[in-house]
Amino acid sequence: MAEKIPSWPKVSIHLYDDHNAEVKIAGRSHPVNHHDPRQAALQLVSEQAAQLGRPVKATAVEADGTSWPLVIHPDGEVEAIEIARKKKPIWPIVVAFSLAGVLIAGTTLWLTVLRPKGPPPPPKASPTLPALPPPSIAPDQFSARPVPPGWTPKASWTVDIAANSQPAVSPDGSEVAVLTQDKKIAVFDTEGKVKWQDKVPSGVDAPVYTTIDGKPVLAVANDDTLYYWAGNGAEAVEVALPNSSTVQFFGTSPLVLLASNAGASVVSGGELKPVPNQPRLSTMLLAEGQKTLMARYEGPLYWSEPGQPLQTLELKPPKGVKDVERIVAASPDRVLVFWKAAGQDMVVPAVHSSADGSPKATCAAANVNDSQNWQWLPDASRKVAAWGECLINFSTGKTSLYPNFRPLSVTGTTIYGSVNSKLVTVTPGGKSRTIPTDTARPWGVAGPHAIVVHDDVVYALDKP
């Protein structure tokens, strides 16, 4: 039964003493003060289950810290999730009961708990995702718009996705993740076979491939919860988000920014860990694992990590300049900096390593009023990038200027952009090619397929 129940919303019941408890549902806290806090907490969860029209999973935590996995039904019935252990019985012998939406005055229902002394042994295996009906997958022809250069209109597989959503292609190009129209997240291999899927609540943002605890995961977030999956059929880890917070994926790992500049947290072990030691007048840029990169307007950079002293990182100037105009932005392994140049309102845009502060690429001097509007667009493998009109090849460290170029997307080492309202493709240092303005631009390349979207349908285009 338990394996067929979706992993959301995350529900926990914390029993503090004979009269007090706390129920958390999708990160929202519900304090309980009652002569029987178990009964009142279970009623609260069963009401949530009734709203969903299905049972929900919950974790009950005793006052001594011992926890037990449960399934709570809309009618108030409570089941223990069977977990292989060295001794038995563990939790619980639960008396099934019906609450009928309200507590019946004068009636007291007790849960009988039989458990051995000492902490319970850990489960032998992680919970796995429920089996769900797969989405409809079929080959098709992409005829609505011109195909990107190097690809054919033949799509070996297609799938409908949620309205106004977008797919995510894993950094290694081995899989594609989408939100489906029936409120699921589905992950496909390069040939369109479903690898795994799970139900998700309404209002989640598009999926993002990121890393948590040093491992690649797939993540989505809504206003109150961050969900992430390690793949291979493992259930989602759910992290409750503070009110009015936002999740930022600029770095290799998520960074949770609190409202009103009240700080930030990184994600580790399924929990939020506050970012410590933020220097005054500094801005948080991104997270890489448990480390957070911060900067003051004119430098320096800082790396902050829970439990570690703050690390200061000084920028090394490129040749011919010495003073920082300002730090502009950052992405994985990279920091964008304007250096003061000779001439009024002139700057030298340079890309630096966020590890040692050294310059990795230096663009030609540009007017700050123009370059401050340049968009930064690196490829996933960090081999090439476009910073507005400045095209960068990190393999050689060389840059080239493409006047009036506005980058739009990058696939491999091919950069798509516009020049005077015309759509072009270009590689750094190479010649540009004008293409039809309504050409479909790939979201990424998965194996032998370019992944494009039109009218809420993903197409996996074939090579010639």
Automatic annotation (TrEMBL):
Entry protein name:
Pyrroloquinoline-quinone binding quinoprotein
The species this protein belongs to is Kribbella sandramycini
Skewed-composition ranges (Pro residues): 119-137
- Annotated transmembrane regions: 90-113
Mind telling me which InterPro entries this protein's record contains? Quinoprotein_ADH-like_sf (IPR011047), WD40/YVTN_repeat-like_dom_sf (IPR015943)
Keywords (alphabetical) are:
Membrane, Transmembrane, Transmembrane helix
Task: Identify the stretch annotated as signal peptide in this record.
Answer: none
From the UniProt entry, list the residue stretches annotated as the region Disordered. 119-145
Q: Has UniProt tagged this entry with the keyword Transferase?
A: no
The reply on keyword Transmembrane is yes
